[in-house]
Amino acid sequence: MTATSAPGLETLPAPTAAPTAARVDDSGDERAIKRNRVLEILDRTGHESLLLTSNTAMTWYLGGSRLHISLAGDPIAMLLVDRERDHLVTFNNEADRLIREELPADVVVHPVPWHGSMHEVMSRLSPSQPLDEASVRRELRDARQSLLPAEVEQYAELNREVAGALTDVLSAARPHTPERGIAAELGARVIAMGAEPLVLLCNGRERSAFRHPLPTSSPLGRRAMAVVCARRRGMVANVTRWVRFDGSTAAERDAEARIAAVEADIFAATVPGARLDGIFEVIHSSYAAHGFGPDQWRLHHQGGPAGYAGRDPRVTASTDDKVVPNQAFTWNPSGPGVKIEDTVLLTAEGIRVLSVDERWPTVEVNGLQRPMTLEI
Questions:
Q1: What is the domain partition of the chain in residue ranges?
Q2: What are the backbone angles phi and psi of residue 240, rounded to the nearest 5°?
Q3: CATH level 3 topology of 149-375
Q4: For residue 28, what pLDDT is reported?
Q5: Is the Cα torsion angle 130, 135, 137, 142 positive or negative in sign?
Q6: Which portions of the sequence form the region Disordered (predicted)?
């Protein structure tokens, strides 16, 4: 394994590969299949190379390599895929770790001085203008829609662990527990499982009207919601759970049953060949059919395909992507004081819920076990 550099740039000593838990498996089929999918894009467009710059595209293509430092910052690398090999350009203070712990062995790494320009190096690596990622955003999204067996296994494991963390933390919660206490416990568990907490939300009873409740010091009160979006090996698990401390009211039980019915309608419409804009129409009509009114969809996004982005993409009236087998989804219908959200996989047998913890109470809805509110 050797780190190379473009002419005129400083070169790092070639480090010795050290086997670690984070090491990417270079020998499997996943990498070859993904590279072939990208080469097919080059064939269709008549280009010789493709420049990848987003975290979503690069982590998918490289099998989950972590190419960030700050979760809020841009990736610390750029990847040029040409017909011969893959070139990764990164700063000299990042290259050694990436080579030793993150990247497939056949990626050629070009270190750039930390004060230098990755774009300048890229311009030297490609004799012709590379295809820009933004111009084939849809094609790349299509390429990562159908998950490979190794991806399904990794994704299912992450989702099970996230669901288990929510069970552990919310089972120990009490009405006086602050929202930030819930978020802190969930964040610690996500990090301990080797994942990154991209989103941690929590609302107690007094803040239940907020659809995206960043946690505060307020106590949970009699009822609360917690949301986790956690990323590991580039894949994002999205899960929502509710807890209640003094029994339910008839109105709460009714609203929870109706939002689960909306979700069941969405699941029924999520079949191979369906278009996302068509599913969006089902969402519109389902809210009205189940007593939430025709405009509820306007108050929060409804979810969509999942995997290497929180939603890939969010479904709208203009997203005409077609649903394919082995595609992951996170739908999240919501109403006043209610929301339901799990990460699922579309299989040959139908919807398979990935974010499952058998300890959490469930109810059967249209043949699937769906989460209830945990009552303590």
A1: 29-145, 149-375
A2: -125, 140
A3: Creatine Amidinohydrolase (3.90.230)
A4: 53
A5: negative
A6: 1-29
Instruction: Decide: 319 and 307 in contact? Cβ < 8 Å.
Output: no
Could you report the per-residue pLDDT of 127-137, keeping only the tens digit for each? 789 999 999 99
What Cα–Cα distance (Å) separates residue 75 from each residue in 5, 90, 96, 157, 248? 19, 9, 16, 25, 46
How far apart CA 295 and CA 93 sit, in angstroms, is 51
pTM above 0.70, yes or no: yes
Q: Would you give the DSSP letter of residue 102?
A: I
Are 211 and 244 contacting, i.e. CB atoms less than 8 angstroms apart?
no
Q: In what helix (H) or strand (E) does residue 108 lie, and over which residues does it extend?
A: strand 108-112
Query: What tens digit of pLDDT does each residue of 295-347 get?
Result: 999 999 999 999 999 999 999 999 999 999 999 999 999 999 999 999 999 99
Q: Angle 179-192/149-171 helices, nearest 10 degrees?
A: 140
CATH class for the region spanning 29-145: alpha beta
Nearest Cα neighbor of 303 from 239, 209, 368 is: 239
Query: What distance separates the 2 farthest-apart alpha carbons in the chain?
Result: 72
CA distance 256 to 175: 20
Let me know the angle formed at the C-alpha of 54 by 52 and 55, rounded to the nearest 5 degrees. Answer: 120
